[in-house]
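tl;dr need the bound structure. longer version: we got a ligand (iron/sulfur cluster) that a collaborator sent over and nobodys looked at where it sits. i said id run it. heres the input, straight from their email, havent touched it
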Amino acid sequence: MRKWQEEGYPARLQDDLGDGVVQCRLSPRNCRIRPGQHGFCMVRANRDGTLVSLNYGRSVHATEETIETEAVFHFEPGARILSMGNIGCMLNCDYCHNWKTSQARFVADSDVFYYTPAEVVDIAVRHGIKVISWTYNDPVVWHEFVTETAALARQKGIVNLYKSAFFISEKAVEELIPVIDIFSVSIKSMDAKYYRKITKGWIEPVLAATEQVYRSGRHLEVSTLMVTDLSDGEDTARDMARFVGERLGPEVPTHFVRFHPDYKMTNTIRTPVDRLERARQVALDMGLEHVYLGNVYDTEAANTWCRACGALQITRYGLNARLLGLTPEGACARCGTDARIRRIPGPAPARPVVADLPTSEPHDVAGFDWEGDVRAVHIRVRNDAETPRSVYHRRRRSGGAPAEWVRIDLRAGESYRFIAAQSLSDEIGVVVAVPPGCVSSLHQVFDRAHFPTTEAEAGTVNADVTPLPLYVRPTR
Ligand code: SF4
């Protein structure tokens, strides 16, 4: 099997310090790296006196999701995106929701998928996806692959989204701004001590880089994970609102995101929703104009209303959005006020749908019923046949007419992964149907921007409603 760390790709942003030592200038950590060693992130190494990227083109499976997955509510709501995640991180947060990929030592060669920039763009084009999202572990440490692929994608009219903890150097941000259209920055806390202790980074470069993006005029949204009893108090909301209102602008959409126990921080509970609601109210009272809750279903705090006439413009349920009162130009459909929602020109490409499965051949059907906090799955389908095939999926509802089947066309040999998330309160689950020659597998999604690595048992439901892989602390 191919070893993912074997080949290096020339890295950008490096200084030669002499005696074969190089300094990486990609993140504020500025690692000084001796020959044969690697940096803190474990994906940039010194090979024969030059810095190389070890994760260029190495990725988790490309996955179709929705833009809401990335805490982006004011850019083409409901858009389908192609999420690309990689290996490594310049931080090491105690609660990391993607620790199986962000911490490179846990990544097995068998977990890694290989893509070229052209292949990523080709997947998006063939599946009618207009946004590529650089996400999950953290795109900062994938700098060369992100910037090269994003530039290629733009030539095809594709928009690039960058979801990051943004512990990044000023020079690296300068290189991103020409190719990235949307920045979704996760500010872990407004407390310097918290940053040092919990994330192993420091706060000042994160805030400076966020301001740099704001000044550039690129689309920016910010979010904060409200960790139970650590950062879910009113002080976090106040400090965040002060930063956004004074150093960015009150129009910048701000998200307070619900936490789930994970990685080294499992001896706690999910953030109580009333604390999130209180945080939102504090930020609104301090003058922020668009404040949302994340990872909370059944809440009006994820909807958008016109700030002039009060009309309901967008409803959101989980990771899905419905546009009710928005013009194609992003204005209120009732009063015409600019909703500050950027739109992608032209009709949104939609998948074909059919009322019934084709009867010309049998289909294998597998399903998952939403339960507890698991209200989404990643579905992977693979066409092992030598000819193109079509697979189908649809939602199951508790009443009314059955939903239509959504068709996905696969090339011979193609593997495709996509998210299915609960989009209505009366939906009970999802089913996927594949013809002979194709296989499917389901992976339970626990909160957004989380790449699940544990496979659910296909065809059965809910054997495990806590699907997260367990972190076992090393004994030495
Ligand atoms: S990107 Fe990696 S190697 Fe470079 S400074 Fe940051 S942690 Fe160090």
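gonna send this back to them w/ a short note. Residues 303-338 form one domain.
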